[in-house]
C-alpha cells in the first residue's frame, strides 16, 4: 500500500541530497534566462559570435543537468518500487547520466506520435474542417494528452525496475497494470498533490515575472523558484508512482540484483596444518 506521508516527506529526509538535486534543477532552468531582450543586450556588448557560443554552452549544460536530474528520478522510482522510500545517493555518475538520457529518449518517443498528429492537423488547418471533424480532432488530442500523462509514469517506473530501454515499450504489461485501482488512485493523488503544491509557486512566479518587467534581474528569482519546486515535487511524485508499481506488480520488497563476488581461490580457503 502506498505510503503518501513517506512520499511527501521524502525530499526533506536528506538535506544534502536535496540540495544537490536543487542545484542540478537550477542548471536545467538556467536556459529560461536567455530571453530575446537579454540576448539582444548581450549581442551589443559581446558580439553575435560570443552570444551564440554562450547559448551553445548553456544548452549543453541544461541537457547534461536534465539527464542527471532524470537519472536521479529513475533511481527514486526503482527504490520506491522495491519498498525503499529514501533519497538515493548520486554515486555511479556514468550510470546516473546514461539512465537519464534513456529517460529523456523515452519521453521523446512517447510524445512523438502525438506531436506529429498535432503538427499535421495544424498544417492542414482547422478552418478547412467542418465542426464535427474539428470536435473529433480536439477530443482525440485531449485524450492523447491524458493517456500520455497517465501511461508515462508507469512506463518510467517499469523501465527503472527492469533497467532495460525496451521496458518503455512493454505495452502488454504496462496496460495490464495501468487499469488497476492500485495504480489509478495513487496517480490521482499524485496529480492532486502536483496541482496543490504548484499553485503557490505559480502565484509567486507570476508576481516575480511582473516585477521583472521593471527589474530584469528579478527573473533569476523565477528560475530559483522553479528549481526549488522541481526538487520538492519530483521525488515525492516519483515515489508515489514507484510504490504504486510495487503494489500492482507485487515486487515491493524485492532486493536489487546483487553483484556476484569473485570466488576465492580454493587453496586460499584451506587452513595450514598445525605443527
Structure in words:
- By secondary structure, this protein is mainly alpha-helical.
- It contains ten helices and no strands.
- The chain is globular, with a radius of gyration of 23 Å.
- It starts with a helix and ends in a 6-residue tail after the last helix.
- Mean pLDDT is 80; it is low at 257-270.
Features:
10 helices; 275 residues; mainly alpha; single chain
Number of DSSP helices?
A: 10
- Rg is 23 Å
State the low-pLDDT regions, or none. Answer: 257-270
| Molecular shape | globular
What level of helicity do the residues show?
over 70%
Average per-residue pLDDT, rounded, comes to: 80
Distance between the termini: 61 Å
Count the strands?
Answer: 0
Major pleated sheet? none
Q: What structural category characterises the helix and strand content?
A: mainly alpha
What is this structure's SSE topology?
Blueprint: H1 4-9, H2 15-29, H3 36-46, H4 48-81, H5 93-124, H6 131-162, H7 171-178, H8 181-212, H9 219-249, H10 266-269
Helix pairs in contact: 2-4, 2-9, 3-4, 4-5, 4-6, 4-9, 5-6, 6-7, 6-9, 8-9
Short synopsis of the structure:
The protein is mainly alpha-helical and 275 residues long.
Amino acid at each position: 500500500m502506498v505510503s503518501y506521508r513517506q512520499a511527501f516527506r521524502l525530499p526533506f529526509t536528506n538535506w544534502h541530497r536535496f540540495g544537490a538535486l536543487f542545484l542540478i534543477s537550477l542548471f536545467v532552468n538556467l536556459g529560461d534566462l536567455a530571453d530575446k531582450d537579454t540576448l539582444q543586450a548581450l549581442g551589443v556588448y559581446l558580439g553575435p559570435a560570443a552570444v551564440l557560443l554562450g547559448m551553445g554552452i548553456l544548452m549543453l549544460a541544461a541537457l547534461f543537468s536534465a539527464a542527471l536530474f532524470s537519472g536521479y528520478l529513475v533511481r527514486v522510482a526503482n527504490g520506491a518500487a522495491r519498498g525503499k522510500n529514501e533519497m538515493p545517493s548520486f554515486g555511479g555518475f556514468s550510470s546516473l547520466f546514461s539512465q537519464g538520457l534513456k529517460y529523456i529518449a523515452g519521453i521523446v518517443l512517447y510524445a512523438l506520435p502525438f506531436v506529429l498528429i498535432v503538427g499535421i492537423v495544424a498544417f492542414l488547418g482547422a478552418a478547412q474542417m467542418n465542426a464535427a471533424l474539428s470536435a473529433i480532432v480536439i477530443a482525440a488530442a485531449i485524450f492523447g494528452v491524458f493517456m500520455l500523462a497517465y501511461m508515462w509514469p508507469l512506463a518510467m517506473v517499469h523501465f527503472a525496475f527492469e533497467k532495460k530501454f525496451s521496458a518503455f515499450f512493454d505495452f502488454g504489461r504496462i496496460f495490464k497494470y495501468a487499469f488497476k485501482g492500485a495504480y489509478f488512485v495513487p496517480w490521482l493523488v499524485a496529480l492532486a498533490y502536483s496541482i496543490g503544491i504548484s499553485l503557490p509557486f505559480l502565484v509567486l512566479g507570476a508576481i516575480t515575472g511582473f516585477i521583472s518587467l521593471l527589474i530584469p534581474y528579478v527573473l533569476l528569482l523565477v528560475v530559483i523558484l522553479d528549481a526549488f519546486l522541481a526538487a520538492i515535487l519530483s521525488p515525492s511524485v516519483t515515489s508515489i508512482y514507484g510504490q504504486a508499481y510495487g503494489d500492482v506488480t507485487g515486487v515491493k520488497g524485492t532486493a536489487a540484483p546483487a553483484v556476484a563476488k569473485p570466488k576465492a581461490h580454493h587453496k586460499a580457503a584451506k587452513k595450514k596444518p598445525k605443527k
